[in-house]
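note to self: dont lose this again. the chain is below, predicted strucutre after it. 1180 aa total, dont forget to put it in the shared folder this time
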Amino acid sequence: MNATMDPALDMLSRGLMGDENALAFLDRTSSIYVLDVTDSSKPKTYGGWNFIHQALNELERHERNFGSSGGASGTGNIRSYVQLLAAMSQRVARRSPQSDRKLVSTCVENAAQYNASANEAEALVVLNAEIREIVMGRIAAMVFDFSFHNPNGPHLSAFSDPVAMEGLCSVLSANAVSSGPQAINHFMLEWIIPSVQTLPPFAVACVILHLGIEATRKVSPAGTKDLLQRMSGAVMAIVLAPVLCDAVQESGEARGVGSNHERHSRVAAVSIRAIERWCSATDLSLPQIKHVCSKVNVNIVEVLSDAMYSDSQLVMDAIAELMERVVLTRDMTTDRMTQTRYIMEVDETKFQSISVADLERIESKEMEAIVQELISAIGLQRFRFAERQANVDLAGCRCLTRIAVAVCKAAMHYSDSEKLDASASGMLDLLLRSAAHQSVNICGVALDALTDLAAKDESFALRLLPILQHRAIVPHVLDSGNPSLAASEVCGVDTFEFESFRSTVLNMALKSCYRKNEDYYMNSCSVAVEEFCKAAPTVKTSFQLEAALYCLGAVAGESIAGGQARLTKEFIAENVSSDMSNTKKNQLARCSQLLEMKPVCMTANPLTLSQACRFVGKHVKWYVANGNDVAIDIAAELCLSAMAASLVLTEEAAQKLMQEMSVSPFSEAALALHYLLTEQPGHFMTEQALKALGIAWEACYMASNQAGAVTIEAREALCDGLCHVLASLPRNQQRKPFQVLFIPTLECLRTMMKLADECNGNSQGNDKKLDSILVRVSDEIRILSVMAETYQKVTLRSSVPDASDEPQGEEPFFSVLRKAWPSVSHVAESFNKSERVSLALRKFLIGCLPHDLQRGEAMSLLKELCSLSESILTNSNGSKVALWPVAEFVTDLINTYGRVVEQHAIDIVFSSRDANASDDETGKLLEGLVMSLVEASQSRLGLVWIGKHQGQGEEPCESQTAPQPEPEKSPSIEGLSLIFSVLTACVRECPTFLVHLRVSPGGTGHQDTLLIGRAVDAACAALIETDVETVASAIIFLDSAIKLSVSLSSELIKETMTKALSRDRKGMIMAVVDGICGSYHHSLLAPSADLLYTAVRSFPPAEMHICLLPAIQQGRFRLGERAQRVALQILDGCSQGIIPLSTLKELVDDVWDLHQVDDVEAIADSDIVARFAADKYNVL
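---
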């Protein structure tokens, strides 16, 4: 571009370069108008249409200058400018003329220095409308000018660029739709359809395409869909079918000619896309298209079949999209019935004499015939698929696969038998080639249909299984002879994407094959395992073995149930050393025997070793069936040997492979062993077994010192399994094993704490080092948590024999656990602001929480946990990260002992019986923690907690037109969600206890000093906040509180709750309704509906009506009068109990979704809102 650039082009140029100011200017220019009164005698507005008009002038002038000077490069340079201008023009054109008038009028009314008369204001509105018409005329002139569509013309304009030209066509369509049905009717019936033979085909197809796109937008005016449905016959028969037919024919004739072939292919692609979009907008079906096209002697199915031979990706993509939409018929909805009537060209009275069942039967029969034609056409494409595959044409193969999948699923839908007939053999051959394609993406598309087909046809499942087994091999390449998983160039996806594909799409396909013939599947996979275990160890065989084991594991959940009966102790003892090659029904035993031999191809490849452990983990139920000791020993030995083997995989090739893997052998072995230990703890209580498990635990700590060797989740799982075994021992045998389990953890924790203190005391850039140390500290605390939680869980549900002579007192485990208390306390005081440490402390507090206060030292342990929580709060400095574990612990404490505390509170209030000392102590601990948590959170509760969002006795800000912005930045409110979660638990478990808590201990009991009153006020104020977590917790708290106020039997407490909830009902309802109208995150809709339903069912009807009317009629509800009546009718029905909560939730989802538009003012008069009110809720 020239240095002295015209102003509009300069702005476009800067916008294309990402200049924020330029982009903001373009955005504002597209959205608003400004009034220029520099010359008060000639006022004028400036907005989107003015800018577009000016930019078109500058672009044309720029092209003329370059053309006259011979600067051929100028056209290429400004194509992006035209494309950006077209996109901007489309946005402006989507605004209706009525909205334009309102914007201009508002602009004039808001002018502070210009008092226009009504005539002057109207003149400015009319002038803007005239400029809009001028711009649309200029765009139409370019779009329908053949000289802009001739690639071989003497001068190729930037406006001729196909992308820019389609953008300009979209402007015409957007303007027609936004202007209303009459404008569409005029545009189509007086311009496009009568002149289709004299207009550029590409422009015609683009205009139809974007009419369909614009008609499906939420803000398309009411009546748009009905009008398009009336035009469907003419659009298909007169416009799109002939254009597509000619384009496909001319594209085939011009193949290899260059620009002509490309031009015709582009026309064909746009025409097919237009058909697809029109079908989407009007509910037109493929049989209906074929019917109307036959009137002009065009067989649309043959045309589409011929188009499949195109070598254009645009054409193939378009056909795939069309097939995916139209080859399956849908239910005869009201809209589809209307479209059918217009196609049949009968009046409504006569049409009503035809039953819906007859229409569906006729259309299904016609569709079945079309599918048969398409099956034959796709079958012929298998040769082109092989050709495209050989030429590495991934896009072409993918498109053909998508087409075949869509037609195959349709064929299965219309077929009366389990199998497809012989005519489908070509199509199935293409799909099987697709499943075997090296690209995982293409394979995944094919399996969408093949999985369903295999589930119906056993013979086809047998054909598909070998392909799936080969597909299960993890893609890899050899780098200097060493395997590497960096094989995305081979398969099109990375390692993690392949794992996702294998665990979902491939897994479902394998299960389909298994269900059709279980014995064949199991025998095939086990034979493969045997073959690869006995073959010479190579990289190839190791990956093949991994795939075979994966295939067995994929159906583990289904194969176990059928295999348990075969597992007897005698069978295992007989077969572990015998040749089982001919034992077809005992494949798992064969595989276990082979893996027990530890073949090199398994132990040398960490990926295969991991899969072998996963195989054991998935078949644990099989191993422990009937208490089979031999089978369990085989599985345990395999896990333990895998742990040992993974620690000695030090070769460079193995280390590199482990770095690329998403799993590790040690982690998988630990998880598998965990399953065995938890399923059969009694089997591992012998001295020999305990010794082996001790070695495994020591190995786990060795692995944890190697980066990536074992995950914390695997360590937790192994610890859980070991604790299951140790907790099952008699009490007099527990102390020493627990000490063995505990010592490595405690030593590691103390060592890491010493290093953390050193780093914390040295401020010279050791943050990263400290973070890595705290990760390990938090991991060890998590291990302690697992020990405590598992021990309590196991001993609580089982009666442990006790043969000891020692007195009944503190249990051996807790005496061991207390040794870690000083270290954990130090962490809680010094490092509680670390997120990893916070998570670990949460697990520790909850894991150690005693489940039975009558057991030994349980109360003493609870006091220590509360003391630890108080210490965290004292040192938190208001940090949410530090407060969170205590809030979670308090919530769990309430859920565990809330009913006990509640009964104690009731006994005290009503003096119904003598209070229990233990219950009294629990209540005091809970009260202290709740109040300490509130106090520690003060700096994170914001103004809403202290009531400064609205004055006492004032109207809530939600009831006004708009809340006033705060002059200063509001304090953080991130602590509110923690407080609301704790109080919600109190409301549900111990409401009597809650309503007597005061914000200032020792207060008089006035509503403002009661914690429940302060919390309700804060929750109502928090409903308008932007933080999703805060709003969600406030909604749930209010919902629970309202439900409680209705269900309470105590009049005194009920009165307190009702008084607290009645202070701002109007503001609460207004805030929730406003949030539902688009401002809330989607995750808040379900709890918002719950709160609304609870409110209308609980509050007095007259008062709720007063709250709801302004919320719906004056708030952010923008769907118009009919939708308002729908909402009020539904809510009224809910209040009477005749409409269920599910209906209200559906309404809330609909209202929220309808508000998700840019031009929210236009939604009230849209087609979708009219149908929402009339069709769904019968409100006219």
